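Dear colleague,

Following up on Tuesday's group meeting, I ran the structure prediction for the two-component complex that the binding team flagged. I've pasted the input sequences exactly as they went in, so you can double-check that nothing got truncated or mislabelled along the way. The structure tokens for the whole assembly follow below. Feel free to forward this to whoever is handling the docking comparison.

Inputs:
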Amino acid sequence: QSALTQPASVSGSPGQSITLSCTGTSSDIGAYDYVSWYQHHPGKAPKLMIYDVSTRPSGVSNRFSGSKSGNTASLTISGLQAEDEADYYCASYISGTAMFGGGTKLTVL
Amino acid sequence: EVQLLESGGGLVQPGGSLRLSCAASGFSFNSYGMNWVRQAPGKGLEWVSGISGSGGKTHYADFVKGRFTVSRDNSKNTLYLQMNSLRAEDTAVYYCAKGLWEWLSEGDYWGQGTLVTVSS
């Protein structure tokens, strides 16, 4: 498996909606619904935000939503807030292995 | 409350060994798979290894196969990562993460990490 591809950075203003992308291949994202998203504030433990493409764990704000089209998965954050500024990683757990994307740094302007 | 506490990190010379531990509490440890994920300085998250709840199935990233060994002691609620033949590129913060399910799966709770530095 090759690493998943994410844009290095994305920015948005408070209240806006932004979408982060994660591109894989027809062998991983395109073939299975096992895409997850993590929020990581530097120096803290990563937090699972979405799994199985679009499922939110208990306690995660409904401002976060996930989707997939073909080989690309997306994380949408609506009503952007200052505390959303963090690094975001997608991941795929398939067939006894796992891989992460390179991460996207989200800046809230 | 789920808690994961990593320990065992430190400075080690290239070619050396280190064993990381992850003490778990707040959940039925033997019912969940566990993961090790690392983050090198200035880099992104990188999955290292995983193990099923029973310990019967283990999984490794290609870059650690043959060098690292994951194990668990369900009687002690503790996850381990034995790291041998360490290289400079293994320098990273190592996180343990509880899986969503008994098998290899996404981490829904993570520890704060332990720093491993490989340098002469």
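Chain B has no helices and eleven strands.

Cheers,
M.
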